[in-house]
Design goal:
By secondary structure, the protein is mainly α. Helices cover 83% and strands 0% of the residues.
Length: 150
Amino acid sequence: MATHSDDIKHLNEKVLRLANELAILDRSEAWLYASVRRTEKQLREAREELKIAQLCVELCEVRKSEEDLKKRCGGLETQYKDTLRMLMILMPVVVDGLGGDKVHALMEGQGLAKNSAFRVLFSDATKCRMESSDANGGAAAGDDPEVAGD
């Protein structure tokens, strides 16, 4: 038969065993908790890296689009300047051939009469025509240099 001291000894051993198991579980729990914290931190870092990578991709796409636009705009700018040079050459010829009133009416019909480039070129062409006809002894019929100022 077991005595109280045997029971106490047995219970003390059980308490020690349970205490050891609890200590192991505590360490295990602490390790799991630390592991979860490390994993959460790694997850946050991975998300941040993903965001950065996505932003880098977007930045590269924007830069490529910007380069494409610069190329297209550069071509358009050259085309615009070439067209203006052609108009500078052709406007006096057209004004001489058709007369200022007809040219202005044509441009007005196309909705270009208020265009600043047209107004400047037209004004210069009509002035040149007026100066040329004044030098030849009279104004050309059908010209009204004031139309450019409308």
